[in-house]
Structures are given as C-alpha cells and as structure tokens.
Write a structure and sequence with these properties.
Blueprint lengths: L9 H48 L4 H6 L15 H32 L2 H12 L6 H19 L8 H25 L3 H9 L4 H12 L1 H16 L3 H6 L17 H9 L8 H31 L5
C-alpha cells in the first residue's frame, strides 16, 4: 500500500475523513430532529389550545369574554368576563416590576461598572441563586412572612392580597433583570467609556449617560422578558394572592390571576368536558397571546434599537 511520507497511510486518511463526515451528518441530523421536535411540540400545544377554546367560544360570546368584568364560571350564576382575571394579572405584574426594575437595574450598573472582578464573581452567582428557588417556596414566604409584616403596618390588608405576592414576585424576577441588563452593559465597548473619561466625565456620568443608553436595547429587552415572566407566574399568586376574581386595582384585597384560575380548575372541581373546564383553555389561550406579544415586542426592541460597534 502506498504511504504518505509525512503522514498516515492514504487509506487510513480516507477512512478518517469518512468517519468525520459521517459524525458531522449524524450530529446535524440530531440537531435537526431536536429543532423539529421543539417546533412540533409548540404546534401541538397551540393546536390543543385553539381547538378547546373554539369549542368554548361556541357557547360563550367572544365579546362577553373580552369585555365582561365579572368572572364566575364555577357559580350557579355564570359570568365569563375575563377582565377580572386580566386586572389581577396586570396588577401583580406591574407591582412586581416596580420592585424588580429599579433594584435590578441598579445592581446591574454596580456589577458592570463599579464592582471589582472578585466581587462580581461572588455576588452575581449569589444573586442568581434567587432564580433557582422553587416558586412554591416563594409563595409560602409571601404568605407566612411578608403578609404578616404588611398586616402589622396596616390592618386594612387581607390575609390573601396582591401586594405581598407582587413584592415576592419582584424579588423572584430580580435576577433576570439584573443578569440580562448587566450582560448588555458589559457588551458596550471599552472605548466608549475611555472616550467619556477623556472628556472629563465622572464614573457616575459614564455609567448613566454613556453605558446605559448604549445598552438600552438589551436593558429594555430584559425588562419585557421579566414582565412576561411575571405575567406567567403561577404558584406565588395562587398561594399568596387568593382566589377571588375581582375587577379591582386595590392591592390590599384578594384577587385572582389567570394562572391561578387555571390551577384552581385543574384541581378537579370542574368535570372534564364541561363549560367550566373549557374556560381554562380560553384563559390559557389569552395568556399565551399576551406573552407571545411581549416576546415579539422584546425582539422588535432589540432589532430596532440595537447598537452595533466595530
């Protein structure tokens, strides 16, 4: 057999090349299969939601569903106004963002611009541990720790209320805001900072007037993703906020969110196939549309306002 004077035999090289090609094709096929399976699962979920929601809207008017303010499908006098659930979801999500956005942005500025490398390597993983705590633990923390503190401050606060759930939910999503915002700030080129320092800017001015505006698309995207996470949160609001679907913006009274209602019906109180059972698919479809719009808005903001540096 002819041999390559500086390498392995030609036959061995051809076999190695064939093995590499076969391995790459197998990996490509595996990756394609994984992608196709993910898309197929998504299509299946959407198809189930649409099918069940269509059967629900065959009995209930879409206008009544989207415009009504009374939600009592489990009572004898049935009302299907989902705005009561939307109001509760919006209330808790907005108040959670009031907690998470300023704290997350300030911590991101500190980690990106002020913290030494040693401090950043320790503080950031500790901060991200908050994201790994089970939400059911957060729920009982809100009910058994935060709520008694709030009730000791004001006697007008109910045992189940939106305020305590929102505060704890803000703590839960704080790592998402902080981590994504800090990554966006760290991606800003060092030359922008050096140019600002050369013009006589202070560290605070560089952080607030140069770095934050340059990373604005990433920061806004982090905010929108955090809002989507807050809207889809389940266990905290189920445990701490109550199960009283009331069309109100008062954070001191019990409310019910869309996710909490889905959990309530899924416990088995409503017979499968009944109109009460089908409401969870209508509510889930609306929740899916809301989160989808939020994610699309996040992608639009990133593509529209992204800064590209060379």
């Amino acid at each position: 057999m002819a041999k390559n004077p500086v390498g392995p035999p030609l036959g061995q090289g051809a076999r190695n090349a064939w093995k590499r090609m076969a391995t790459e094709r197998a990996i490509a096929a595996l990756l394609f299969l994984s992608t196709f399976l993910s898309v197929l699962i998504t299509i299946g979920i959407v198809a189930v939601l649409l099918f069940e929601a269509i059967t629900f809207f065959a009995d209930v008017s879409v206008f009544e569903f989207l415009s009504g303010t009374r939600w009592t499908p489990l009572f004898s006098s049935k009302q299907f106004g989902v705005l009561a659930l939307v109001a509760g979801t919006t209330l808790t999500a907005v108040m959670a963002m009031v907690v998470a956005l300023p704290l997350g942005l300030l911590s991101a500025v500190y980690l990106s611009e002020y913290a030494p490398n040693g401090v950043r390597k320790v503080v950031k993983p500790i901060l991200e541990v908050l994201a790994g705590i089970p939400t059911v633990v957060y729920g009982y923390f809100a009910l058994l720790f935060v709520t008694p503190i709030l009730r000791s401050i004001s006697g007008d606060i109910s045992v189940f209320n939106a305020l305590s759930a929102s505060i704890v939910m803000g703590i839960m999503i704080l790592p998402m805001v902080s981590s994504l915002s800090e990554d966006a700030m760290r991606a800003v080129p060092r030359t922008l900072r050096e140019g600002a320092y050369a013009l006589g800017s202070t560290k605070l001015e560089v952080s607030t007037l140069v770095v934050v505006p340059a990373a604005l698309s990433g920061i806004v995207s982090a905010f929108i993703l955090a809002v989507s996470r807050a809207i889809g949160e389940t266990m905290i609001v189920t445990i701490a906020a109550g199960q009283n679907p009331t069309f109100t913006l008062n954070p001191f009274v019990p409310i019910e969110t869309m996710t909490a209602y889905i959990v309530q019906v899924s416990q088995g109180d409503a017979p499968a196939g009944s109109i009460e059972f089908k409401t969870i698919f209508a509510v889930a479809l609306l929740l899916f549309v809301i989160t989808l719009v939020m994610n699309l808005l996040s992608q639009f903001v990133v593509s529209r306002f992204r800064e590209e540096y060379e």
